[in-house]
Specification:
By secondary structure, the chain is α/β, with parallel strands linked by helices. The chain has helices spanning 11-23, 34-43, 60-70, 85-93, 106-134, 147-159, 176-185, 204-212, 229-232, 248-260, 286-291, 297-303, 320-334, 344-351, 358-372, 380-386, 393-399, 405-423, 428-435, 439-449, and strands at 4-7, 28-31, 48-52, 76-80, 98-101, 138-139, 142-143, 166-169, 194-198, 213-214, 226-227, 237-241, 262-263, 272-273, 277-282, 306-309, 341-342, 377-378. It binds adenosine-5'-triphosphate (ATP) and magnesium ion (MG).
Length: 451
């Protein structure tokens, strides 16, 4: 254990303090002047510093100022017989944990020492957890340690090297575009372009020209030849976003292009061979669209050689704290607010929310949190304020939840289990510990609730 450093020019005080520390089982080193203590602290950090205020050579405040240059974290207790308000304020500003008037009551000092050490330990544990979260495994620019996301990432790694078409499905904001990008970046086509086209944002005729290009005079408004996205993406990847919104006529044309590997710009009869890998995405149910005649089945099979399904955030709650911290760190940097963090209770609040807008919605909430939080930590109070009111778990349960007690209890149990999994990064043993039940019982409940 690191020592407690005692700095006091009075021999008797030093003795008393050392005896007290020894009784508390704490190793200590005592100095009768600040410069020597600083020299020691420069070599080895300490668990706690107890310092007098009035000392020859260098007084306690100067000492504290120098100490803070070395280490901003060590807790310090300042003791003095000449305590003035100004000195106390100054010491507080320099991050002294406590200020104690001499002659001190031994018991009070003992409590104070124990509390300071406890606080420091807590803080360093939190920092450790934070660093762990920051170091959470990344896949390209994506956060995702939940098993469902790990599966997605490994599928991406398998399909990326091929030139097969990939269809990415998932609710809005689940990260479909990021996955499309990752497929490209991990493919042999990475040095060519990744071209994205949103099929729902562009009306039919224009979309056709966007895809295949046109020659001058092909239609009114076509003042010059224009290259389509297929040609821009030649050798690379074309990402067709919201493919479910493409009109049926264009679907037929797209299918032909995919079969033949050749495009014909509108208004020309020139055939241009293209080598393009297609990744598409949709948040619609394409099977339903097919049965309603809004989507061609043959095109569906062409696009869907591999399917990557992105699970909604509420089905991978273990990822919510990590994602939230990732976004918070990002906005902290962007806004010049330094390292922003999320405390455990706030992480719990976020993890129990339902997130209909998925990662995008969480990102927006964290952006507001970064702007609104007063200090470097986002706490549960702020998190609750930022969530849409209907998604407050308490309100949910009260207003819309079931009434029969058995169902209410089951719902509460399910939420507690999800929270414990989120808190422990999906570690079942640790989660069972938090819940105060055995691991076997937890497994039974996981099965029961389909978690
Ligand atoms: N796993 C993740 N890690 C980090 N950021 C993510 C992750 N998933 C999504 N995001 C972020 O969330 C936002 C939404 O992601 P994206 O645009 O890829 O979603 P989408 O599924 O394409 O949504 P939509 O269907 O609405 O187009 C983006 O800002 C993206 O960077
Ligand atoms: Mg998208």
């Amino acid at each position: 254990m690191r020592p407690v450093i005692v700095v006091d020019d009075d021999h008797r005080t030093r003795r008393i303090l050392q005896i007290l520390l020894e009784r508390m089982d704490l190793p200590s080193l005592a100095f009768d002047n600040a410069p020597e203590a600083l020299q020691q602290l420069g070599q080895e950090s300490a668990a706690l510093v107890l310092t007098d205020l009035r000392m020859p050579h260098m007084n306690g405040i100067e000492f504290l100022r120098e100490l803070r240059k070395l280490d901003r974290e060590i807790p310090v207790i300042v003791m003095t017989a000449y305590g003035t308000v100004e000195a106390a304020v100054e010491a507080m500003k320099l991050g002294a944990v406590d200020f104690l008037a001499k002659p001190f009551d031994v018991e009070a000092l003992e409590t104070l020492i124990a509390r300071s050490l406890d606080y420091a330990r807590h803080r360093s544990e939190n920092r450790f957890l934070r660093e762990q979260a920051d170091r959470a495994p990344r896949f390209e620019e994506m956060v995702g340690s939940a098993p469902a996301m790990q599966e997605v990432f490994s599928l991406v790694d398998k399909v990326a090297p091929t030139r097969s078409s990939v269809l990415i499905t998932g609710e809005t904001g689940t990260g479909k575009e990021l996955i499309a990008n990752a497929i490209h970046r991990r493919s042999p086509r990475a040095d060519k372009l990744f071209v994205a086209l949103n099929c729902s944002a562009i009306p039919g005729e224009l979309l056709e020209s966007e895809l295949f290009g046109h020659v001058r005079g092909a239609f009114s408004g076509a003042h010059a030849d224009r290259e389509g996205k297929f040609q821009s993406a030649d050798g690379g990847t074309l990402f067709l976003d919201e493919i479910g919104d493409m009109e049926v006529r264009l679907q037929a044309k797209l299918l032909r292009v995919l079969q033949e590997g050749v495009i014909e710009p509108i208004g020309s009869n020139r055939r241009v061979p293209v080598d393009v890998r297609i990744v598409s995405a949709t948040n619609h149910d394409l099977a339903a669209a097919i049965s309603e005649g809004r989507f061609r089945e043959d095109l569906y099979y062409r696009l869907n050689v591999f399917c990557i399904e992105l699970p909604p955030l509420r089905e991978r709650r273990a990822d919510i704290p990590g994602l939230a911290r990732f976004f918070l760190a990002q906005f902290g940097r962007e806004l010049g607010r330094g390292a922003l963090s999320l405390d455990e209770d706030a992480a719990d609040v976020l993890a129990t929310n339902d997130w209909p807008g998925n990662a995008r919605e969480l990102r927006n909430v964290m952006e507001r949190a970064a702007v609104l939080c007063d200090g470097p930590v986002v706490d549960a109070k702020l998190a609750l304020r930022l969530l849409p009111p209907s998604s407050d778990p308490e309100v949910d349960a009260g207003d819309e939840g079931p009434f029969e007690l058995q169902a209410v209890v089951a719902e509460a149990e399910r939420r507690a289990i999800l929270r414990s999994l989120a808190r422990t990064d999906d570690n079942k043993v640790a989660a069972a510990g938090l819940l105060g039940i055995g691991e076997r019982t937890l497994w039974t409940k996981l099965k029961k609730y389909g978690i």
